[in-house]
Design a protein that fits this description.
Blueprint lengths: L6 E5 L7 H12 L5 E3 L16 E3 L19 H6 L8 E6 L13 E6 L4 H4 L2 H6 L6 H21 L2 E4 L2 H11 L3 E3 L26 E4 L8 H11 L3 E4 L5 H8 L5 E5 L3 H10 L2 E4 L7 H8 L4 E4 L4 H4 L6 E4 L4 H10 L7 H8 L4 H16 L25
Parallel strand pairs: 1-2, 1-4, 2-3, 4-5, 5-6, 6-7, 8-9, 8-11, 9-10, 11-12, 12-13
Helix pairs in contact: 1-14, 7-12, 10-13
């Protein structure tokens, strides 16, 4: 295929539709004619949002990887990213939570990376990653993650400008890659949500359940929310899937107050948000799209006072911030706070600061300001780090 389009878009992989993919959809809307490069693509998993786009995959696509097994390819993701042929484009806009920032653009091209997070398992959750694989594979994984860190540092020197989705991500980019970045908060489809008036007909303190909306992986700390709800003897619903579901359901599903709903469609999610007492955000999110969606529905958020919640939740006005990692503090909030004292319309108004249109305007302004600068001379390394280790199963 020709690479003559002036702009190219890159995303890690398009297999399922989560927060990073929803953000990338908004990025793609800004440049509707741009080809999309990605390591792996599953049209069904991306709900055909890119069915009419020119999607170009890496050589790994031929292996038939999907959401259930793509993690086995971890050692070769950096190399496959560097091999994607984006050099013919004048501008590359990447969306990266792991590898996309590592594409090698043309020497006189510009590369703007919208960074959701540096790859967490290589940089700040290595211990957790190692704990998720059998002991015999840990030395291999340790070497793989070391190789990814080396590749990341080289890639970071080539990126023209980084944009961070939050203050936490900005700090991590500075700490791990020694690069500055500007913050552009990610888009939230706030128009999909609205406060409901039916809650007023329910008795106080019984107006719905607490709600968790999250991928069920260890670092999301859904176990903390469930433990706090059990201590508070209050009902809680969990929306999401992931490798932790079986363990969490075994621990909490049979005790009467926790209900696991799996993945739900957009209409059902909007209903759950609007009828919930509050959304629970127990972990340090880089941003936390679910927190904004709940607020767009007029419902408050009980969040750990870390990460993106410090930027999206106004303590006492649109939710409550409690010490992170403290199940008792969450339990006290669940039992002591009348969540219906919060003003639904005020909460929803606050959420609209993070709309898709606001995001698109800020992103395009950042890219256009870069276009006005002199063309860069890319500081390519003379050699690229080779992939380390052999394919294995872990969770990037």
């Amino acid at each position: 295929m020709s690479s003559s389009a002036p702009v190219a878009l890159v995303h890690d992989y398009l297999l399922v539709r989560r927060g990073a993919e929803r953000t990338f959809e908004a990025i793609a809307e800004c440049w509707p004619e741009a080809p999309i490069y990605t390591l792996l693509y599953c049209r069904e998993g991306s709900q055909e949002r890119f069915a009419d786009r020119d999607v170009r995959t890496s050589y790994l696509q031929k292996l038939g990887a999907n959401q259930s097994n793509f993690r086995r390819l971890l050692p070769v993701f950096p190399h496959a990213t560097r091999a994607m042929p984006v050099q013919g484009h004048q501008l590359v806009v990447s969306s990266s939570s792991a590898f996309a920032h590592g594409v090698r653009v043309g020497r006189n091209s510009r590369h703007v990376c919208y960074c959701h997070s540096p790859f967490r398992y290589a940089w700040f959750e290595r211990t957790r990653a190692l704990g998720e694989v059998p002991a015999p594979l840990r030395p291999v994984l340790r070497g793989t993650l070391k190789g990814i860190r080396v590749a990341d540092r080289v890639a970071a020197r080539r990126v023209t400008r980084y944009l961070a989705n939050s203050e936490l991500t900005r700090q991590r980019i500075a700490t791990h890659w020694d690069r500055e970045s500007d913050i552009v908060h990610p888009p939230v489809e706030v128009e999909r949500f609205a406060p409901t008036r039916t809650r007023a007909n329910l008795p106080p303190r019984t107006r719905g359940n607490l709600l968790v909306v999250s991928e069920l992986v260890a670092h999301k700390r859904v176990d903390l929310a469930l433990e706090a709800a059990e201590r508070a003897q209050t009902p809680i619903q969990v929306v999401g899937e992931g490798p932790e579901r079986g363990r969490l359901e075994a621990l909490y599903g049979g005790k009467g107050n926790a209900e696991f709903l799996g993945r739900v469609n957009d209409a059902e999610l909007a209903r759950l948000y609007a009828s919930a007492r509050a959304l629970v955000l127990p972990n340090a999110e880089e941003f936390g799209i679910a927190a904004v969606e709940a607020q767009a529905s007029g419902r408050p958020v009980v969040a750990a006072a870390v990460g993106g919640a410090l930027e999206t939740v106004i303590d006492g006005e649109t939710g409550v911030l409690v010490p992170g990692g403290d199940a008792d503090a969450f339990a006290r909030a669940f039992t002591e706070i009348d969540f219906d004292r919060f003003e639904a319309e005020r909460i929803a108004q606050h959420a609209h600061r993070f709309s898709k249109e606001v995001f698109k305007r800020r992103l395009v302004a950042q890219v256009e300001s870069l276009r006005e600068e002199a063309p860069p001379q890319q500081p390519y390394a003379t050699t690229a780090p080779a992939p380390s280790g052999a394919p294995l199963s872990t969770a990037p």
